[in-house]
Structure formats: C-alpha cells, structure tokens
C-alpha cells in the first residue's frame, strides 16, 4: 500500500498564537498541522473527521469522537495524563494511544516547589496586603516557614516525583519519603535521597505532602477525610496532578478547622473550578489553572517528542515503551 503524501495532525487544544508558531517551526513534511479554534463539540468532532493523527492536551477525546475519526492512525497525547481520553474506546476501535513520557516533568516539578514556597511564605496573602497599602513585615516572621529541615512526602514517584526529589535536595529537607506501587531501584533511591514507605506512614510523617499519582478509579479521592486526618497538624498539601485525587470538600474542612496550614493547588475537580468553590476563599490556599507543564520554553521539546513518535508510527517503527498506552495495531501500520 502506498503511503499518503501528507498526514494531517490535529492539535485539539486552543493554543496561543506564539505557541502555534513554535509547533509549526518544529513540524516538517509530510505532516500538515491544524489547530482547534475552540472546544465546541461540533468543531472538535469535525476536526477528528479530518485527522490522521490527533494530539489532545487538555481537550476531551470521547468514544464518539474516536468513532468519528475514521482516518485516524493514532492518538498522541501532549503530556502524560490520559484520563480525558476514552482509552476503552480506543482499544475497542484499534486506535493506538501514546504519551510524551517525561516531557513535562521538569516544569511540573518546578511548579510544585513554587507552590510549597508560596504557601510557606504566604505569598498570595502578603502580596494582596501590600497592594492594599499594608506592611505586614512583623506578621510574616510569625506565620512563615522554610522547606529546609522539613519532611517531604511524594505520593507517586514517576518522572515528576523524581525530578521534584532532585530539586528539593538543594533545600536540605530532613527527609524525602515516597509512596508508589512500584518501588524505585535502590541506586535511584540513594541518588535522590528518597525512601519508600506506605501511604499511611507518609501522611503521618510529612510536613508537606505533594501529589504526583495518575488518576484512575483506584486513586479517586485518594486524599479524603480519613487521609487528611492522618496528616500532621500544620501540614501542607500540594496537588499538581489531578483534581480528582482530592476530596475538595474534606480539604476545605481541614483548612477551616486549622488542621492543615495551607494548600497549593494546580488541579481541581471539575476544571475550571466553580467561582463558589470554598477553596478559593482561603488566604492560605495558592491556586494555578492546571498549568504545571505550561511553560513557553518547553513547547519546542514537547513538540519534537510528538513529532518523533509520529515519524516512528509512519515508518512502522516501535515507540518508546514508556510512551505506549494502547499499542499499535493494523490502523497505524
């Protein structure tokens, strides 16, 4: 069978013009790139019908959309989370699904550190006070803390968790603990100064708990009322993973009771959060719009990762094992 002369690659997210220009500068023939104009269901469905390859990031990719994508050879996720892709439908339809494993790990780890610092140093509160003409210098000494000497617990120890452990080492924490179904090799643990423990021990021992687990049925509300009560009084919760990992009502209650010192949240359930979400009303909660991987100087590397995988698929070459979610079948060969 002759190969097509061109392949249409549809980026399903609404991207800023500067980001689009970087992606276009990375891609080359035989790939032609199209970008979504909005998230309207009809528009997204129409794009699916024209695509040889679909590249969703935040955009939802339902079973109906996959069924309508009769030309599609594969779904290549921008990033790693596949909870907004109907993986069961992809398997049923024989559509390969891949991710860009590790591509956003550095930026997400940096944001996790930033949120830790922002909560500990009360940056949201002090910034607002100073813009209102206040000078809360003496108050800060009483209510702020440092990462140095603290025990940090990482829930999930994949690419992001390991990048974060490496970045945290410079702060000289008392300990870095991690909870993960898959233990890291002994040399990895030693090089990162991390020790594997059960989740219950991690919650009880950590001054800061940072979430880096994937979302699936087994991790929904992993941090619920019971887990929050296990956490140390005065601890901080950081979530740069998925909003569904946290019972937000229980978290709001823990903050209102003063059991937790604060939280840094880059993920919500749903997204965007309702304006009435009580978590948005706390001075000790620092929030960002699920933008952990969203840094401009990482666009080109991720785009290059996407391109390499598409070139491998077209050439009939295997993808890196860590990128494969649904393996290749006849539609991608």
TrEMBL record:
The keyword Chloroplast does not apply. The keyword Cytoplasm does not apply. Residues 113-292 form the D-isomer specific 2-hydroxyacid dehydrogenase NAD-binding domain. CDD domains: 2-Hacid_dh_11. Keywords: NAD, Oxidoreductase. GO terms for molecular function: NAD binding; oxidoreductase activity, acting on the CH-OH group of donors, NAD or NADP as acceptor. PROSITE patterns: D_2_HYDROXYACID_DH_2, D_2_HYDROXYACID_DH_3. Belongs to the D-isomer specific 2-hydroxyacid dehydrogenase family. This is Dehydrogenase.
């Amino acid at each position: 069978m002759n190969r097509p002369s061109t392949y249409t690659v549809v980026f399903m997210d609404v991207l800023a013009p500067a980001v689009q220009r970087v992606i276009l500068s990375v891609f080359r023939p035989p790939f032609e790139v199209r970008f979504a104009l909005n998230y309207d269901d009809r528009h997204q469905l129409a794009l699916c019908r024209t695509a040889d390859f679909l590249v969703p990031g935040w955009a939802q990719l339902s079973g109906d959309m996959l069924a309508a994508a009769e030309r599609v050879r594969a779904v290549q996720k921008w990033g790693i989370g596949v909870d907004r892709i109907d993986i069961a439908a992809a398997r049923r339809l024989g559509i390969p699904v891949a991710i860009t494993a590790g591509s956003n790990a550095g930026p997400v780890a940096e944001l996790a550190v930033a949120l830790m610092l922002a909560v500990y140093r009360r940056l949201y509160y002090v910034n607002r006070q100073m813009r209102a003409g206040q000078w809360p210098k003496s108050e800060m000494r009483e209510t702020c803390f440092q990462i140095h000497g603290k025990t940090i617990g990482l829930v999930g120890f994949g690419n992001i968790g390991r990048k974060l452990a490496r970045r945290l080492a410079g702060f000289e924490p008392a300990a870095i603990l991690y909870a993960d179904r898959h233990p890291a090799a002994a040399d990895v643990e030693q090089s990162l100064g991390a020790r594997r423990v059960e989740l219950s021990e991690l919650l009880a021992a950590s001054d800061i708990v940072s979430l880096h687990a994937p979302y699936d049925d087994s991790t929904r509300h992993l941090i619920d009322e019971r887990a929050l009560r296990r956490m140390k009084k005065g601890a901080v919760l950081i979530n740069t993973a998925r909003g569904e990992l946290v019972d937000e009502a229980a978290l709001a209650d823990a903050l209102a009771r003063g059991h937790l010192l604060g939280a840094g949240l880059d993920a919500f359930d749903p997204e965007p959060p309702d304006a009435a979400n009580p978590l948005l009303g706390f001075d000790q909660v620092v929030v960002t719009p699920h933008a952990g991987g969203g840094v401009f100087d990482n666009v080109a590397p991720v785009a290059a990762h996407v391109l390499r995988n598409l070139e491998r698929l077209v050439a009939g070459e295997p993808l890196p094992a860590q990128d494969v979610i649904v393996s290749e079948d006849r539609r991608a060969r």
